[in-house]
Every structure is written in C-alpha cells, then in structure tokens.
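[User]
Um, tokens okay?
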Amino acid sequence: MKKLFLLLICPLFFGCDDGDLQIETLDFNSIVTVQTCNTVSITTQNTLFKLNDNQALIIDLAANVLKNEEGVIEVEITDSTDTTLIYRIFSDAATSNYFCDDIPPITPTVIDEIVASKGTLKITTVLSDTTEGSFEHTIEIIDITLDTSQGQRITDLTIDEFGTITTS
C-alpha cells in the first residue's frame, strides 16, 4: 500500500514546470506609431520597430519586399528568410536612440531577445491620399511563433496592425 501511495504522489512533485517565462502578453496593438531610423526604401533592407516601455518588437524587412503598387502581399517568416521579427525585453524603458544612434546607449541592456521562428507579415499597399506619388504600406503580423532560449514556445500571437509606413 505504501508503494502505491508513493507512486500516486510522485507526479505532484515532478509535475510540469512553466519555467521562468517572462512573456505574459505581447501588447503592441495599442502602440500606434511604428518607428524607423531612416527613410523607408523599397530597394534596401528596412528596420521598423515599436516600443512599449521595456519591450520592443522589431521587423527587419528584406530589400525589395515593399512594392510601390497597390495590392496585398504576404511575407512568410521562417528561420531561413531574410525578413525577421525580433522581440526584446530590456532592463528599463527603451527609446528610439537605442536603435538609431551610431553607438547604442549603455542602458538599457537587453535581458532577453527572441527571434520568431515562423509567422506571416500581411502588407496592404494603397496609393497615399496625402502625398502625391507615395504609397502607404500597412503591416499586420499573423500567427507568430517565438522560441525562447529556454526552449519554450509561444505561438499564435497576432498583432492586428503593426503600423503604416510610407514610400515614394
């Protein structure tokens, strides 16, 4: 009887552990402004980012992904594509200086950096109503999968509107 009791109670001590997962939610929908350090170009790689206090969501958009023509395209993010999505957690609130200065500031420091292993960017392009000859590209992120350094996987994260950027 003692052996049966021990057998039944063992799973309580060796059960699953959620680990030290720092990501509870990715809330970048409420952050309206997507930022960039340089003028966005259709022929070069573009780094776009959104800041939410001590978190950043960064898209490195490969060259020639954006087109100056109306339509909708989907860009797949995988381990082998040139377009990447990165989620960073900082030790303190980050500013655009962290991304835009030639030499990044010493603080805040990166506590964790997670690169998306898969996901989809949906880019809707329309002719700009405000600037003649310009195009507005609205970026939506669908079904991101983030793999942490501890081997934990966070899936099915969606950001309805990452933001809108303009090219000419």
Observations:
- The chain has two helices and eight strands.
- The radius of gyration is 20 Å.
- The chain has a mean pLDDT of 83.
